[in-house]
Amino acid sequence: MRRIIWLSLALALLCTGPTALNAQTATGQITGTISDASGAVIPGAKVTVNSEQTGLSRSTTANSTGNYAFPLLPVGVYTVTVEQQGFSTAKRRRWRSTPRQRPSDRW
Description:
- By secondary structure, the chain is of the alpha+beta class.
- The chain has a single domain, classed as Immunoglobulins (Immunoglobulin-like), CATH 2.60.40.
- The chain is 19% helix and 42% strand.
- It contains 1 helix and 7 strands, in the order αβββββββ.
- The longest helix has 20 residues.
- The protein is elongated.
């Protein structure tokens, strides 16, 4: 009898384990490309996102092709700021990060 109980418990854990591993997360991503008015990319620009709800702030640097990415951002509304020496600072407000949606922009 005891063996049947343990076998049933093991079977129940095997059946429910994979379901628990597929839990959804509430994160999104913001990506983009930094370029000037002529369309030339601007590598090395500092890009910062700030959450309007929580104050969370993250920064990165645009890569050699002007691209940047902020993966795994909590869902919310963000202000994106781009700074580079020799250029004026650019800001975009009310940028949304939502699950399964990856907002992207070209500056």
